[in-house]
Amino acid sequence: MQDNFLLPVSQLSEEKKSTLIHWLVENVENGLSSPLDTYTMLRFYADAFEQASKRIEALTAEELAKYGKEKPVIGAYQVSTRNGGNTYKYDHDSIWNELKGKLSEREAQMKSIADFSVISFDENGIEIPAAIKVPKKDSIVITKKPK
Fold it and tell me: What pLDDT, in 10s, does the model give residues 100-118?
């Protein structure tokens, strides 16, 4: 496979990226490219680049480790590592599990009346306010065509 369809590393710049974005959008807006074709192509390449990035991430980290604290500059970009941080688990605590269960129950009660104009009360006679629906942005889904 030829590898010359990508810009050489030395030419990577925000200006080149802006030019590419402008060109792609302008072609769609001027009717030179179909929005569906262009969007699908962009998702195809984004997926390919994401998968390739994941597959070479360990090798990239190994090479980057050779630089120590130095941050190499590649084209217009500086490359470094960032500490992944920590996440915490709580599910080993019985009190936490009990409170989480109560919260889930309350959420279910609030959701159950969200689409209705009703007043509801819990077992203690306390009014249950309806959950507030916050609509999310619709998304475009691209899947492989059926065989």
Answer: 999 999 999 999 999 888 8
